[in-house]
Write a structure and sequence with these properties.
Elements: H1 17-37, H2 48-61, E1 64-68, H3 73-76, H4 79-94, H5 100-114, H6 128-137, H7 139-147, E2 160-163, E3 166-171, H8 174-191, E4 202-205, E5 211-213, E6 216-219, E7 222-225, H9 227-240, H10 249-267, H11 273-295, H12 299-305, H13 308-313, H14 319-337, H15 341-344, H16 348-407
Antiparallel strand pairs: 1-3, 1-4, 2-3, 5-6, 6-7
Helix pairs in contact: 1-5, 1-6, 7-8, 9-10, 9-11, 10-11, 10-14, 11-14
């Protein structure tokens, strides 16, 4: 096998009960200490709304950002480095020695789990123990990023967000970004035998450059769903509603609802009304197509029978309903807490409406100008035509007089 981590594939292994016991033990040991230093860490809380609030809050104080992730993080983890780093990181965070039980797991259970890898490197996907080990392995880098102070930032610590190997670091200026990369991130990743994914490396300024993180896009103070995630969701819906699949109506609707509820509740915090409306229409279209084939109905008959209300009565969930319920609840809370913010705060849909109104006004003005020009052109043409008619009549009268005088007897 090649030593290059980019050539290593992802892999899965069957989990067992002992792995779950070890994972829970490690979480109990590390999470309370992580909570003291990084309350926003993904091992403690993975609620997207809190991460979005964190971005909104700190993007004002820290106008610049550094967005990075690690190239093939799970398959690239070196087992020897991981086993060495786990006790080191624990001592750094807690300041306590390792217990006998912890030592037993480090010497026996964790190496047994790591040896299941067919490449003698990397962590498996889908395992809870992999999830915990992957979170612990980069804690050394987390501590470095957060604690290092620069003269350029007036001694302010660098806040950041992380999910697995995805980082969003907040900075005061451009020089901080360069210093972080050169002096902290790249040397620390070399120590951990990891590499930055240069394709996804991005830096810029909040409210000017688009930032994507945990499936959301943050731009000009608003959050939207990443287009790739919408396309992934569409593909999942297509898979469920393939015409070749012969499943009952109830099972297809149940599997569709599982996808709708998961996607809807995750992305309901963003400005997504239009996206949800379009996706709802797409889901209904795919389900109608599937049910028509099952019932062997004609398309016209199907459109009459399989209405939106009928699909709702048979149990199909709606993304737009999830969003509207959330907005109503969220709106009431905001009214009670801060009623003044209602005027100043605008949703993405309202901003789009304002933009469309401006476009309509601009186009109407252009049409008015064009119509006035056409009217002017028509008046000029009518004047020219009148002049031509006058010249024609004058010519005819002159001819008549000429013939009259010519025919007179001399």
């Amino acid at each position: 096998m090649s030593s290059n981590p980019n050539s290593l594939p992802y892999f899965k292994i069957k989990p067992n009960k002992q792995e779950l016991i070890v994972a829970k033990f490690l979480k109990r040991k590390f999470v309370p200490r992580i909570k003291e230093k990084f309350p926003q860490h993904y091992l403690i809380q993975s609620i997207p709304s809190k991460n979005l609030e964190f971005i909104k809050k700190f993007s004002k104080k820290y106008p610049y950002f550094l967005r990075l992730d690690i190239a093939l993080y799970y398959p690239s983890i070196n087992h020897q480095v991981l086993l060495k780093k786990i006790p080191e990181i624990y001592k750094k965070i807690s300041g306590k020695p390792i217990s006998k039980r912890f030592q037993k797991y480090l010497e026996k259970d964790i190496p047994e789990f790591l040896n299941k890898s067919p490449y003698k490197k990397g962590l498996s996907i889908g395992s809870f123990l992999s999830y915990v080990l992957g979170g612990i392995f980069l804690l050394d880098l987390d501590l470095k990023i957060y604690s290092v102070r620069y003269l350029s930032s007036n001694g302010v610590e660098n806040p950041f967000l992380r999910y697995n190997d995805d980082y969003l670091i907040f900075c005061k200026n451009k020089s901080e970004i360069e210093l972080l990369l050169k002096n902290i991130i790249i040397p620390k990743l070399k120590e951990l035998d990891l590499e930055i994914n240069h394709k996804k490396l991005k830096s810029g300024r909040f409210h000017q450059d688009k930032v994507d993180f945990i499936g959301f896009e943050f731009y000009a103070g608003h959050f939207r769903i990443k287009q790739e995630k919408i396309e992934e969701f569409r593909k999942k819906i297509k898979k469920i509603t393939y015409l070749t699949k012969k499943k009952s109506k109830e099972t297809t609707i149940k599997s569709l609802n599982n996808k709708i509820l998961g996607f809807g509740h995750y992305y309901k915090f963003s400005s997504c009304k239009n996206d949800f409306q379009e996706l709802d229409a797409f889901i209904r279209m795919r389900l109608r197509r599937y049910l028509l084939r099952q019932k062997e109905l004609q398309p016209k008959e199907g459109n009459i029978i399989l209405t939106n209300k009928y699909l709702q009565t048979i149990g199909l969930k709606s993304l737009l309903e999830i969003k509207e319920k959330f907005d109503k609840k969220f709106g009431k809370m905001k009214k009670q807490a801060k009623p003044i913010l209602k005027k100043s705060r605008m949703s993405w849909d309202k901003l789009e409406e304002i933009g469309l109104k401006h476009k309509v006004n601009y186009l109407s003005k252009q049409i008015e100008q064009l119509t006035s020009l056409v009217k002017k052109a028509n008046t000029r043409l009518s004047k020219i035509e009148k002049k031509l008619d006058k010249t024609k009549t004058s010519k005819k009268s002159s001819k008549k007089w000429f013939l009259f005088f010519k025919n007179l007897p001399r």
